[in-house]
Amino acid sequence: MTASKDPTVVIIGAGLTGLLAAQALKQHGFHVLIFDSEPHLNCRPRDWTILIHWALPLFSSLLPPSVLASFDKAIANPHLEFDEWAGTLPMYNGETGDLIFKSAVPGSRRITRRGLRDVLAEGLEIQWGRTVTKLDTESSSLEKVKVTLEGEGGIEEQNQKGGEDKAKVMRSGFMIGTCIVDYPDQSTKGSLSSTPSIPRKGPSAVRYLKQSWQGLSPEFQSFIDQTPEDDSTHTKAFIDEMGTWIAQPFDNRSGRVTLAGDAAHPMLILRGQGFQHAVTDVHNYVQALLKVRDSAADRKEVVGRYDEDMVERGSKAALQALREAELAELAMDETGVERMVMAREGHGRGV
Ligand SMILES: Cc1cc2nc3c(=O)[nH]c(=O)nc-3n(C[C@H](O)[C@H](O)[C@H](O)COP(=O)(O)OP(=O)(O)OC[C@H]3O[C@@H](n4cnc5c(N)ncnc54)[C@H](O)[C@@H]3O)c2cc1C
To answer: What range(s) does the FAD-binding domain occupy (predicted)?
Structure first.
């Protein structure tokens, strides 16, 4: 296989993983085509914050300087002084308010997902409202991937120059909907709790939380008590179950299709590892593609090695987070806390 000079990479999903990959690939001269099923960048009513800690240096290295220069716009609390205390993650006893432990996360930054998406979308052309429904790699050319969009015909991606065409697909988010709700194998799933019949959103969800959360120390209780039930903010209250998926080997169609981030290994949020592994995926994936493009290395082999590492790392991290959640449930008697990885070893890279 002769590597072409400017291959096109199709990215399915403009979440943080897809956008980071797009920025990194573009910087290295790849063409990127990005599809996302959502109608526009900020259409979701919900947002959350993410601590970028051990993967921050790798994350920074993937971005062009112009995008990295805007990173501070994504910081959740722009008024925070980044002193020693801000570089820790404290865990408190909610009833007494006592500090149980704090782990060091020096140099880390807490961003909002929405803010970082805004920053990472800079300069990218994203095709919103376009859901990918099918990937076809059976066409006559071994280098092409046909991407089918909902309600539209297929797009056959190829190198812009035509001749030595090569299309790669990085899927970010493609399986989220199905892999969490439709587990093919009972043994590969885990979830923080089974869902009782409780109100899931709006004022009744806030009321349910207020009734369930009583007797906390005053500092914590005040957060619950002051949450408004019935003003315009109520539409932003949701109670959700968290899901996880233990990554499995998959058919990468001779290295033409692969996975990264939550599409590959959604994990429970304990120890905040999900995005750190997504960043690691993107870094490794970009290195793999550069090898294929610049040294004509065998795509099947190189992307296969990427997949192997991603599946092994992602599944271990997801299992570790699941175990951590089980210990957190036991933490009420404090013996669980002592056994938690975050109490013993902090929030550093565990896998
Ligand atoms: C409350 C919370 C706190 C967290 N805290 C941390 C933390 O502190 N540290 C940490 O490292 N991680 C944390 N995480 C995890 C982190 O948020 C995720 O790992 C990361 O955001 C995943 O990004 P992604 O791009 O892989 O997936 P997503 O954000 O799910 O993006 C996938 C995108 O793909 C699109 N899509 C899906 N299917 C299709 C399709 N068929 N066609 C077109 N588009 C499609 C979707 O619309 C979506 O935009 C946290 C997560 C939560 C929920």
So the answer is: 251-309
